[in-house]
Amino acid sequence: MKLLPKLLGVLVAAFIAAPLFIVVPMSFSTAPSLEFPPPGYWLGYYAAYFTDERWTQPTINSLIIAFGTMALTMLLVTPATFAVVRHRFFGRGLANLMLTMPMAMPHIVLAIGYYSYLGDLRLTQTHLGVIIAHTALSVPVAFLILSANLKGFDRNLERAAMSLGATPLRTFWHVTLPVLRPGFAISALFAFIQSFDETVVAIFISGRESETLPRKMFESIRMQADPVISVVSTLLFAAVALVILAPVVWKAVRKRPNRDCARGGTPAAKDAAPQDVNPCAPSRVQLEA
Amino acid sequence: MLSVLNRGAAAPGALKPWLLLLPLVLFLCAFFLVPLGQVALMSVTEPEFGLGNYAHLTSDSLYLQVFINTFLTALGVALCCLLLGYPLAYLMAQSSPRVAALLMLLVTMSFWTSFLVRTYAWMVLLGNNGPITAALAFLGWNPPPHLLFTRLSSTLAMVHILIPYMVMSLYSVMKRIDPALLRAAESLGARPWSVFRQVYLPLSAPGMVNGATLVFMICLGFYVTPVLLGSPQEQMVAGLIGTQIEEFLDFGQASAMAMVLLASTMIVLTVYHRRFGLDRLWG
Amino acid sequence: MRDPYLQVSGLTKSYGSVQALGGVSLDVEKGEFVTFLGPSGSGKTTTLMIIAGFENATSGSVRVGGRSLSNIPPHARNIGIVFQNYALFPHKTALQNIMFPLDMRGVPAAEAERKARAMLDLVGLSGYGDRWPKDMSGGQQQRIALARALVFEPSLLLLDEPLGALDKNLREQMQIEIKRIQKSLGVTTIFVTHDQSEAMTMSDRIAVFEKGRIDQIGTPQEVYRTPSTPFVARFIGDSNLLPGTVLDPDQGLVRTEHLGLMRLPSRLAAAAGAPVTLMLRPESIHLAGLAAGVSEDAPNRADISVHTVVPYGDSTLLIGRAGGADLRIRLRGPEADGIGSGAALSVLWPASAIHAIPAV
Ligand SMILES: Nc1ncnc2c1ncn2[C@@H]1O[C@H](COP(=O)(O)OP(=O)(O)O)[C@@H](O)[C@H]1O
Ligand SMILES: [Mg+2]
User: Which of A264, B109, C128, C210 stands 20 to 30 A from C42 (CA)?
Assistant: First the structure.
């Protein structure tokens, strides 16, 4: 391999990394407005973030809404995924299309729709309204991840369980569910993040009462006033780093071959590439922003 | 759930899958299709029935300008992402697993960091008191240029925000290129550049198409970053739609623009689907 | 007459327009080891899945111990299955996997564990109870799967190509092991494979599958010596198949297309002039002059010119032209020494080595 493309690659990596890490020193800066490098360091804006209700309330709202979205999404998506993956039936293609469609929508389009429709239903500015909208947006991601896991699920495990005397219900409870647990967990996590990150729809429908953290951040950046934004950014970035690094560190500490998502102990599954950091990442495809 | 397990057993009945699907389908009808339909409806009924809003879109050169601007920006961002993403993905594909994992970690981290955080970071970088302006001033550019709230700042930030999509698309394809093919080409007398040009590049083309399509589509409807970092004089479609609503409460005009935006996105998707099949796009 | 233990009759199965099974019938006695042998796609798995209750037959029935299984769900059939990929539960240890069927039957935990440990002993993995499936080798997983399928004393044991994923040495070891365990428990067993030597060494009887049907059921000797179709003759062992027509059924005389007149050991059931295929195993052909007790006069002899010599170590395969067709001859040990390509040989075979396959 030649040196030049390698060097280019390293430069691009730096281009990706630099803006991510610049928010960290900014959060400790004493400067009241954008200034880099910071003129001095303190923790004042951290204190401000954790005590100012204009920041804590949106954070709490966002958490409530994300948990609600996650629960509602999984409740709706789980049976639907079993139907689409396990059955051949008339209208299956249509169902598949419908479940993935929200993903292909520019969020601004849906934002207008929700603004007027949920307004008619008197659901704007309520947690429930935002949860409903976010659930519609989370369905495709949750569905795609869960169905990929379910497709990879070895039906022989269920056959084996039944041949060993387990009724269908017990088979589901003792075999299907536990084996698919990582798939469910990842699917739910994605639904949570989808909601916690969603900005555009929230800007238009969350209003004062149910203002989410992204909406508050958006407004704050737009007014370019509040230096607390750098604190929130750093905390969010740290949370992402934690979620991504935790499994890597965990794996390194345990030093065991990783356990495949849901495939089970088939010989083939053992060969599945072990060094993928985040095999499910690319499914976060959203026309948001 | 009980009967899900027995595909073949008892009455197969087409009813069972639909029963399992029913809650979700009803939900999506009520809270996805209907709101979407309402947008379509508003575009022809607000403020009065007719195609007036669409006529307005074509007659007023401002709108046309915004659409062209959006299209060109999306194209440019997709191209930049491709040009920058390719060397990185190539580096990852050619490196040892450890280095590749490390780089993947970085890309994944960027991918998962909120758009808002990354947009804010660019505000810091490009601000009047930021490091880039300072560097330009140091190099003798006096007075240093205004970088923020220009087409440059929003494009730069969008490239940064969307490049992970491109790198992931490219890497997933490159990782599957059999190194034996490259060695075979070399053993058949190809020089390194020819190996790349004749073998590697064509084999990685699906990743380029996937990544570029994704980036282009997301960029078409991008709201947050252009609104926060872009020039108010050179809005993109999504931003203009937002303005129509927030400032003028002109739902009809906003909806008509939204429908055109939606249609453009659907056209890109359909063309992609015709040629490559949609299921490949979502990775 | 007493009913057979397992009675499969007239099974057919269609997937849309594809017919997977076209009428499979067979009887298995209690304690018997029957192998389903056939190429991939011939319907072995489908038959097994119908017996186990995971697929519904389009028509036909399965009875065990005189009782029809048609309305019994899989979990109530008491049939043990070993899958090709083992299907061990990845979230349970080896011991927990083996205890699973006992749990499902409400066996108290202590007794379940005792039985499961006894099974671990039987399959030779006493110390491995706490291992996770992913931490075990293919052969070990195989044994755990076997133990799990046997611990609840099933009325029937089904094994679907259980050795397919193992390498050659381990395969042979497991063949012996499975046979030993099956014998010691006396469980009625159906074993699926596409490997003919595996079928020959393990089975009491072999059912040869072709295109969704059973061509022949018989002991390994029977299917080898007296195949009932050309397919069986070709699929099991090496053979020369000689097309011909019956000349004199009472005398057992057949005129073959390429090797002229042949005399069979006994009279033929077919009428004069009927087409017939003769099978001649390569190892029953001898060099003229060396074979004791074989008369040297025609018929049952040929002059060939050798064009290919394949040494196998313990034997040598010669392929030569005779009467416009290839004839395969397998000579043991040193008999073939000095025979090279281009050699002209005179060969002969006893009438008893010829088996007539009626034309279909
Ligand atoms: N679920 C299915 N759908 C359609 N065809 C099937 C299905 N299962 C098996 N078949 C077909 O039935 C035939 C027999 O398959 P199988 O019983 O698996 O063969 P074997 O186990 O002998 O290899 C094959 O032609 C196969 O393609
Ligand atoms: Mg099979």
Answer: A264
